[in-house]
Amino acid sequence: MKVAIIGTGYVGLPTGIxxxxxxxxxxxxxxxxxxxxxxxxGIATIYEDGMEDxxxxxxxxGRLSFTTxxxxxxxxxxxxxxxxxxxPHPVTKEADLKYIRAAAExxxxxLDGYTVVATKSTVPVGTGDDVEAIIRRVNPEADCDVVSLxxxxxxxxAVHDFFNPDRIVxxxxxxxxxxxxLELYRPFAGKTExxxxxxxxxxxxxxxxxxxLAMKIHYINEMADFCEKAGADIREVAKGMGxxxxxxxxxxxxxxxxxxxxxxxxxxxxxxxxxKYGAHLSLIETTIAQNDARKVQMAQRVTEMTGxxxxxxxxxxxxxxxxxxDDCRDSPAMQILQEILKEHSNVCVYDxxxxxxxxxxLGTAVDYAANAEQACEKxxxxxxxxxWEEFKQLDLAKLRLIMNKPxxxxxxxxxxxSAVRENxxxxxxxxxx
Length: 433
Ligand code: UDX
Known about the structure:
Strands 3-2-1-4-5-6 form a six-stranded parallel beta sheet, with helices on both faces. A six-stranded parallel beta sheet has the order 11-10-9-12-13-14. The longest helix is centred in the middle third of the chain and has 32 residues, at about 200-230. The protein is of the alpha/beta class. The protein has helices spanning about 10-20, 35-40, 50-60, 70-75, 100-110, 125-140, 160-165, 175-185, 200-230, 235-240, 265-275, 280-305, 330-345, 355-360, 370-375, 395-400, 415-420; strands at about 1-5, 25-30, 65, 80, 115-120, 145-150, 165-170, 195, 315, 345-350, 365-370, 380-385, 405-410, 425-430. The chain is elongated, with a radius of gyration of 24 Å. It contains 17 helices and 14 strands. Bound molecules: uridine-5'-diphosphate-xylopyranose.
């Protein structure tokens, strides 16, 4: 089928590449000329594990192309996916739909023949109605159905998640639209669950799922605080909980609080929707408030462990919002670092992939190291803030020799407590006294 995807970001690009790999003719459209020029030259604008080969192969085969020309992309398409950003409004925190509306205004002009217009971006419940109204106003003759087609891709696993979805949710209000999308996703038939629901249910599923995952993370973080006070071990508690199939073991890793470009945005948008519809979402509101407060609490642990001396040398390991990505947007690590910098000025940072992004945010406020060991040289404390697998392999004996003080604060429980202590460190982690 011919698919047009509007927006070539963390959602649009992996989705476009995935659909072209499945044999569709895919045109990815973006307003940013530099981005399109880079993609046309075969230079990906985001990093995703396993994406490069698919990108090059489908670009070379001609199944995948990129343009800034909405008309060229949209006309003749069987499906047009809107995958543009829905950033939080700076004040109200509601999802700002200006890019969605602009895309709908523009694409409406070029619809010819029956077309399914799908919102792939995470959009507030009822956005499909808005998009439908815009298209009807701009092009009353347009023969199209507007559907909700939410994505559930995790950053760093977008290619894996595209080809291995837990479910494909199709929010369509007509049989015709449903059939077009069942045809598009036919390669997944028999391998995953197809959920055909109303458009509003589909829009709600996305937010309800993300908000629940964020709440699950907050829950285990709160249990970790309880364990520290009660003398239990959160690693053992999380394992015991996770063995209950109704709970599941995933997303029970305690840490400094969740971050990234989705959970903070989606939980705030969901809370605002609750207010808008008069359905108070108290659990989500509490999750947001407590998760924000946790970043400050985590920074206070650093100050407590270093006796509050402003000039102690602090090594910060990890800046990305999670391991496996270079993305620092709404990163817990960066938020905690900002708190640390309010009390301390002698900080050295390292992250396996996020250094460039971090430098644009931190400037000269910190020193930058080429690796974890260099960051720890002469440090009075090492603080692990992001769950990078490589931090599990830290050479503790060497760190003991090069650090000024044997202090490790592990806010991601990456290290084995007994091994750290055997190497002469004072070790503090999450969820264990
Ligand atoms: C999330 C959802 O997982 C995905 O389904 C949705 O499509 C987009 O939003 P993402 O934001 O890429 O994906 O990251 P995710 O892996 O969910 O992690 C989000 C945050 O939670 C990170 O800061 C991570 O460190 C943290 N986290 C995750 C925990 O603290 N503990 C966990 O057990 C899991």
